[in-house]
Amino acid sequence: MGKVAVGATVICVAAAAALLARHRMNCSGRWAKAMAILKDFEEKCGTPIGKLRQVADAMTVEMHAGLASEGGSKLKMLISYVDNLPTGDEKGLFYALDLGGTNFRVIRVLLGGQEGHVVKQEFEEGSIPPHLMTGSSNDLFDYIAEALAKFIATEDEGIHVSPGRQRELGFTFSFPVRQTSISSGNLIKWTKGFSIDDAVGQDIVGELTKAMDRAGLDMRVAALVNDTIGTLAGGRYSNKDVIAAVILGTGTNAAYVEQAHAIPKWHGLLPKSGEMVINMEWGNFRSSHLPLTEYDQALDAESLNPGEQIFEKVISGMYLGEIVRRVLCQMAEEADFFGDTVPPKLKIPFILRTPDMSAMHHDTSSDLRVVGNKLKDILEIPDTSLKMRKVVVKLCDIVATRGACLSAAGIVGILKKLGRDTVKDGEKQKSVIALDGGLYEHYTKFSACMESTLKEMLGKEVSENIIIELSNDGSGIGAALLAASHSQYLGMDESF
């Protein structure tokens, strides 16, 4: 080989080496930038115990303020008119209608008192056709009433109400309502994709009752509740130590049992039993102590309800996956985390759902193949290294940990309000929190973190007496139980 050829080869090799070195430096720089974004996010999401105690204290203060005056707090602290929780003595046949969104359920429960408890439970599910979500209230409630009538027609011969008595129904209606009694309330607004203008402001029970009349049903709505209060009622039926209920699912809320003397006179109520269930609407809680980031602020600003439901937007299943997506998008845009171009799918809001995030977070395979498959199937990112997948798992952990810790702080706030966050004079008082919702039930790293944080905040002695109890489908059976505990035939012998 001639000198010229050798020289050219040396130059080519040197150029290639320089190009490779430059590429490695660029990759190293990009990786460092991506890790800097992740580290900054992790620091801003930090939930040290000191900060969580501040959040719990703020929750307690807001609870007091919301009870003291209407509109005095971001927490609505709504009087539920549930002043007679189930005791386990209830007997008879009762129904429940659970309308929580685009799906609904009708439930039949046969109660046998202290000895029998729930003798039999049956249910059927249905879905609301899309055209009825934007039609008239008459059409919507007629459709539901007809489904209820068909379900009632399937009663067994041995299951029936006593002669001369109306069937009674508990109605779980998980839309904003201004309650006026245990069995009446005016619709404030539709949410969850419904838009039926003629129903806004109307008595929702009145509308359902008229529809049942048109369907030929002789039935009384004995209780109007939301899913959180239904969960509390269902929990109390099986455990007298239940003092609060929390929903951690697509959305989040909490309700608790307040003593009558703690409810200011402006409410003008005198609870029969000396206690009243308060619907906190805690998703709307906000405090300067909440560890919010620029991603949370952007999510809020672009939402349908900016400035509202701040607590919900950092702890509930509707939003956790979206927060992860937003951070990944930032890493892709500013640090080329997924290569030279930003994957188009990554720019679509809410494309990454919390169940997908949970599946990635729980991936125990050596190569994190679940993470790789999720990124490929959902975001159309075909090739990811193990190092990249580990970063995605870390990001899921940061978001889930913050949500779980803040949920625990909220529960501690309720316990503080009730004076159950300490042991007084050696007295050990059991406090059970009924918990429902897919986020808590299925995202095990979330629920485990929440429970361990609760114990850490309360200390060993107190936490031994605080029990978290999964109340599966509490809202459905809870409505039927509240129909029983607020029955117009209360005190009369019930045979079946």
Which helices and strands occur, and which strands form pairs?
Layout: H1 3-44, H2 49-68, E1 78-79, E2 91-99, E3 103-112, H3 113-116, E4 118-127, H4 137-152, E5 167-173, E6 177-181, E7 184-187, H5 204-214, E8 219-225, H6 227-238, E9 242-248, E10 252-259, E11 275-279, H7 294-301, H8 310-315, H9 320-335, H10 354-361, H11 369-379, H12 386-417, E12 431-436, H13 438-442, H14 444-458, H15 460-463, E13 466-470, H16 474-485
Helix pairs in contact: 1-9, 1-12, 2-12, 4-5, 6-16, 9-10, 9-12, 10-12, 12-14
What does it look like?
There is one protein chain. The protein has a domain at 79-238 and 473-485: 2-Layer Sandwich (Nucleotidyltransferase, domain 5). The longest helix has 42 residues, at 3-44. It is globular and about 80 Å long. Helix 9 (320-335) packs antiparallel against helix 12. Strands 1-11-10-9-12-13 form a six-stranded mixed sheet. The protein has a five-stranded mixed sheet with strand order 4-3-2-5-8. A two-stranded antiparallel sheet has the order 6-7. The chain starts with a helix and ends in an 11-residue tail after the last helix. With 496 residues, the chain is an alpha/beta fold. It is built from 16 helices and 13 strands. It has helices at residues 3-44, 49-68, 113-116, 137-152, 204-214, 227-238, 294-301, 310-315, 320-335, 354-361, 369-379, 386-417, 438-442, 444-458, 460-463, 474-485; strands spanning 78-79, 91-99, 103-112, 118-127, 167-173, 177-181, 184-187, 219-225, 242-248, 252-259, 275-279, 431-436, 466-470. Strand 9 and strand 10 (252-259) form a beta hairpin.
